[in-house]
């Protein structure tokens, strides 16, 4: 896996993720926890944002103080529909980020992603892209999303998820070795339906209460 996979083992994230995994956790609580964790993931994924100095005046003295040089250059791309949960949390922390959406659904028989929606900022080629989707399972959707985003020539691409399966990481890193994966956990395996085990179930259904 090398340096491409960044496993974020912060105790707050681990604790909240365990609460999300529990079958009895309600939709409202699940949504809230995902938002909280996503803010913490955003903290990690933005570690390398550039700063510049700005002359300000404190109550006591003038000061050359650091401010973000590139916050307006970030674009968060949500893979619909579960990506919305991570997007909401990240926007709390980075409200000036631009947003894009990519709609992919998994064909239940082949597990192959089919694109049904794509909308990103027109100047994406000047921006750093963070693609978000809670579950890196087979990796098919993530790989397809990155492929599609690469065709828009952004400055850089990072992929952020909550849970990853070893199979998904393997697939993703083989096709896109240049794109780092940020994840809060790497689970044991995929089951025969492409679900992550032990996982947390269907992230979209749990987020939107559609089951
Ligand atoms: N998508 C989900 O929502 N859950 C999984 O376990 C795998 C893919």
UniProtKB/TrEMBL annotation:
* Keywords for this protein: Allosteric enzyme, Glycosyltransferase, GTP-binding, Magnesium, Nucleotide-binding, Transferase
Q: What is its EC number?
A: 2.4.2.9
Cofactor annotation: Mg(2+)
All copies of domain Phosphoribosyltransferase, residue ranges: 8-210
Answer yes or no on keyword Transferase: yes
**Mind telling me which Pfam families this protein's record contains?**
UPRTase
Binding site residues for uracil: 196, 201-203
GO biological process terms held by the UniProt record = UMP salvage; uracil salvage
This entry's Gene Ontology molecular function terms read:
GTP binding; magnesium ion binding; uracil phosphoribosyltransferase activity
Keyword Glycosyltransferase part of the UniProt annotation: yes
Q: What does this protein do?
A: Catalyzes the conversion of uracil and 5-phospho-alpha-D-ribose 1-diphosphate (PRPP) to UMP and diphosphate.
Xref: HAMAP family: Upp_B (MF_01218_B)
Name of the protein in question: Uracil phosphoribosyltransferase
Species the sequence originates in: Fischerella muscicola CCMEE 5323
